[in-house]
Amino acid sequence: MSDDVTTISTPIRLDYTYTAGVAASRFLTSVAEGRLIGQRCPQCAKVYIPPRGGCPTCGVATEEEVQVADRGTVTTFCIVNIPFPGQAIRPPFVAASVLLDGADIAIFHLLQEVDVADARMGMRVEAVWAPRDEWQPSMESIRYFRPTGEPDAAYDTYKEHL
Amino acid sequence: MADSPRVLTAPHVLEYPYTRSVGPILGRFFGGLRDRRIFGIGARDGRVIVPPQEFDPLTAEALDEFVEVGSAGVVTTWAWVREPRTHQPLTHAFAWALIRLDGADTAMLHAVDAGDESAMRTGMRVTARWRDETQGDIHDIVCFDPEIATTAGGGH
Predict the structure, then answer these.
(1) Can you tell me the distance from the alpha carbon of A161 to that of A36, in angstroms, rounded to the nearest whole number?
(2) Residue-level pLDDT at A86
(3) Which of A76, B66, B89, B119 has CB 3.0 to 4.6 Å from B114, enough for a Cys bridge?
(4) How many CB pairs lie under 8 A apart between chains A and B?
C-alpha cells in the first residue's frame, strides 16, 4: 500500500465579463484621454468618481459631468505586508483612499515613492500617469500616486469623506 | 452628448488556488488512485461506500474498514454535456454520470466518454481510464469508457 495522500489541490476559477455601464464607461474613456470625469448630483451637489449614473443618497440620476483634479488627499490607507498569489507588487506597499480635489468620494489606488512608515491621513498626493501611448480605459493608466510635498490637508477638509 | 453611449466590457477572472486537507479516509482513497486501485469503506450495515466516508451515514459511527472495489461499474444516472467548460474533464461532449463500481453499494460521480449522447444509457457498463502518470487525486481517473460489448450489435 502506498502512502496516504494528505492534501489535494482544488483550484477554482470564475470567468466573468464585467460591464461598466454608461456612466463608468464615460469615465474610463476619459481616463484613456488622461482626464478624470465625475458626475455631480443635481440635488446634493456631491461629485461622484467614478460616476455610476445616480446619487445613492438622493436617489436621482446624475448627468452633469465634472472634471476633477489628478491630485488630492489621502483620507485613509492600508499597509500591505502579506504576500499572496497573483500579487503584482512586492510588499510592503501602501494602498490608499485618495480624495481627488473637486470630488466628494475617495478613489482607491496605490501609493508609491513614499516610505510606508510615512504614509498618513491628510497627505497630499498626485497621480503618476503611465506614458501617454499606454493610456487605456483602465485605472492602470495611472501607475500610482506619490506625495506632492505640500503641507498635509487639515482634517476638517476631508472629515466628511472618510 | 449627441453620440450614443458606448458601454465598455472586460473579462474579469477570479481564481482561488485552494489546497484542501483530505483527512485519513479520503487520504487512503486518493493514495489508492495513485496505485490505480479504488478503495471504499464498509458501513456498519455491510454496505460499501465509494468514495469512502469518515462516518457511517446511518449510525454516525467512525468507519475504518477499507474495502477495495473494481475499477469498472454501472451507470446509475447521467447528464449529457454538449459544450464542456474550461477545466472540465474532457474538452469534447461527454456525460456526467453516477457510477456504481463493482463491489460498491453507492455511486460515484465521474465523466463518461461515450462520444455521442445516443451511446449513453442507464445501466451501461463503464471502465476507468487511468492517467499515464498518477498523482493521487481524482484526475488520476481521466474518465470512464463504455465497456466494449462482447457480442455484435444490431447492425443498424
Answers:
(1) 18
(2) 78
(3) B119
(4) 96
Q: Which residue has the cell 465521474?
A: B110
Phi and psi dihedrals of B149, rounded to 5?
A: -65, 140
Residue recorded with cell 495611472: A142
Please judge whether A16 and B14 are an interchain contact, meaning their C-beta atoms are less than 8 angstroms apart. yes
Q: Of all helices (H) and strands (E), which one includes residue A37?
A: strand A36-40
| A125 contacts A97 by C-beta, under 8 angstroms | no
Q: Name B115's Cβ contacts closer than 8 Å, sequence gap at least 6.
A: none
Query: pLDDT per residue over A104-158, tens digit each?
Result: 999 999 999 999 999 999 999 999 999 999 999 999 999 999 999 999 999 999 9
Report the distance separating Cα A76 and Cα A120, nearest Å.
7
Q: What interface predicted TM-score (ipTM) does this complex get?
A: 0.79
Using the Cβ of A42 and the Cβ atoms of chain B, whether some distance falls under 8 Å is answered with no
In chain B, what residues touch A50 (CB-CB under 8 Å)?
A: none
Q: Which amino acid is at A118?
A: D
pLDDT tens-digit readout, B10-66: 999 998 889 999 999 999 999 999 999 999 999 999 999 999 999 999 999 999 999
Rounded distance between C-alpha atoms, residue B14 and residue B27, angstroms:
28
**Residue of B7, B8, B140 to mutate, interface with A, max A Cβ within 10 Å:** B8
| Cell reading at B58 | 446511518
Residues 6+ apart with CB under 8 A from B92: B84
Rounded CA gap, B146 and B121, in Å?
Answer: 10
The length of chain B, given as a count of residues: 156
Question: A98 and A106 in contact (C-beta within 8 Å)?
Answer: yes
Q: What is the SS3 assignment for B116?
A: coil
| pLDDT one-digit tens code per residue, B88-123 | 999 999 999 999 999 999 999 999 999 999 999 999
